Amino acid sequence: MSRKTRILILGGGFAGVEVARVLERLLEPRDAEIRLVSRDNFLLFTPMLHEVAASDLDITTIVNPIRKMVHQTEFIAADVNAIDLIEQTVTIAHGADRHTHLLGYDHVVLALGSVPHFRGITGLEQNAMRMKTLEDAITLRNRMIAHLEEAEPDCSEITRDAMLTMVVVGGGFAGVETVSGIYDFMESAVRAYPNLSPSMLRVVLIQAGSHLLPELGSELGVLTRDKLVSRGIEVLLNRRLTAVTPDDVTLDDGRLIPTKFVVWTGGNAAPPELAHLTTASNGARVITTRTMLVEGHPNVWALGDCARIPDGNGGYYPPTAQHALREARVLAENLAASLQRRPMKEFTFNTIGQMASIGRRSGVAQILGYKCSGFAAWFMWRTVYLTKLPRWEKRIHVALDWFLDLIFSKDTVQFMSFRAPGQGIPEKCSLETSASNASSSSSQAE
């Protein structure tokens, strides 16, 4: 009796999960053993991540349990520690004690996504937040509330200017949608704090290029900038960070912005577990052929954010969800074809369109070459992504959350309690002030 072909998929994002789902349809369980390894036991719908940070959506609405999405695939919740292409093994770590063991494979699919690339900027990694994971979105939301809470008392030793200044770095889709979500949330939430007002808020977006959303072209980039500026968001173009400390950021023109709130969306790189591959260098993604095989390795495949797949025109396909899903389907078909000794096909896809939400029920979009902005683009953004969200259960939940968001104000419940960076016990708070605050709280409770 012949042994089953062992297929190991690393990564539980759009690409990895879709590869598993398609392979389940193409291969018989008696012929192949499919395993999927992912750090999280859920698929994160990243296009809506900024809406969780902005309190527009509940944290559970944009995640789907992977075990409910695959049926013949063995799912393993674990971290990938090392990949040995010679021995054809992967070292994983899981469990409370993070014990390790080896998984062997005949074919391995690299779908590990990407990690923030800090470009060697002094203090950036240590002092900036990210917007890549569900934890990042939750942390961002809690930090916004924590800063409002710290800035509210008159006795706070930390200056309100620094506490209420939010800096987002990176003018691509993630940066624009994040800064819009931050501004919408803070402008609404600040009204619940008697000693604060919207005029005290300062939200800054820093972009190294000459216009925002370079993927959509200069016209929509300029329109987006004008829209953000009209709302009160500062947009600094052609500017780069040179240093970040717990108290401020420094720009390449020497300008210093006092802030304790920095979000980095300015670049991504391949995960460190792929750094040893000779096809990956300087934080670049793993280079593949157009059939998505890693060059020089006939049983190693790569796709999604961690891969650079040639587009046939001298460039590479962008790391977006719409590309990852289609790459996954072709890769799964090619992997099955290789097992059955059939010809493989090259991946070819023309981008359908790209959209961004820029806050206050406004957006920008480019669909099949046509450009639009404002409410129509925002409505299109929500409609398209709602239909792409896996499982009807989640779609209904998201639609209900969006409806309730039209009626009620932002929820300022802090999920995690922590002091803002640099905050100690306020020595200047007198007993009289503390007693007064306690009395006020008691009266409100009654």
Automatic annotation (TrEMBL):
Q: Which Pfam families match?
A: NDH2_C, Pyr_redox_2
- Stretches assigned to the External alternative NADH-ubiquinone oxidoreductase-like C-terminal domain: 353-411
Q: Which InterPro entries does the entry mention?
A: FAD/NAD-bd_sf (IPR036188), FAD/NAD-binding_dom (IPR023753), NDH-2 (IPR045024), NDH2-like_C (IPR054585)
Key words of the record = FAD, Flavoprotein, NAD, Oxidoreductase, Transit peptide
Recorded GO MF terms: NADH dehydrogenase (quinone) (non-electrogenic) activity
What catalytic activity is recorded?
Answer: a quinone + NADH + H(+) = a quinol + NAD(+)
Domain spans labelled FAD/NAD(P)-binding: 6-328
Highest taxon, organism lineage? Bacteria
Family affiliation: Belongs to the NADH dehydrogenase family.
Q: What is this protein called?
A: NADH:ubiquinone reductase (non-electrogenic)
